[in-house]
Amino acid sequence: MTLEEIRSRMAPRRAGFQDVTGEYAVLVPLVETPEGLQVLFEVRAATLRRQPGEVCFPGGRMEPGEEPETCALRETWEELGIPVEGIEVLAPLDKVLHQSGFLMHPILGRIDPAWLARLRPQAAEVAETFLVPLSYFLEEEPLCPSYPLVPQVGEDFPYAQIGFPQGYDWKGARVEVPIYTWEGRAIWGITGRVMKHLAEVLRGRA
Prior knowledge:
single chain; alpha+beta; two-stranded antiparallel ribbon; 4 helices
């Protein structure tokens, strides 16, 4: 392969993250109400195969070549019936690289309050929606238990080939799981991580 062939191959390519199995985008929707800014959440339908009944944001898997913002707005329209013109995109938030291999792009946005009364949740995906004051996340610290990620290496790993015939000291990690509780609902997992990050940014800690 020549240098010119390498230039040609690399020119149209956008750098990403190695070993990512899929990319997703969600809208983190803020709504202005008489009581102040609130965050709009969904509850996933009980009939869904993955995470039924869990609290989440509108969003889904990015299509090939699709930008995160476009995906988040498309999914919000499909799930809640809020059109693009009813949403003001404010900013992208920090990406979340999940240990299972997928990459999440959270997009912070403002929903026109007029659309709050005109939501059309897609019953096959959304059981219900609810609001939580943004101030709750700014004032409350989540419960943050964690669990270990322990390397599981088979006996057939070729340690001698990498120069460590006696074995290798693989490094593990711990995963933090932020959990907020609002009126009997648990806001946790990636949704909890996104809200914890947003609160830290708004408080000037991140």
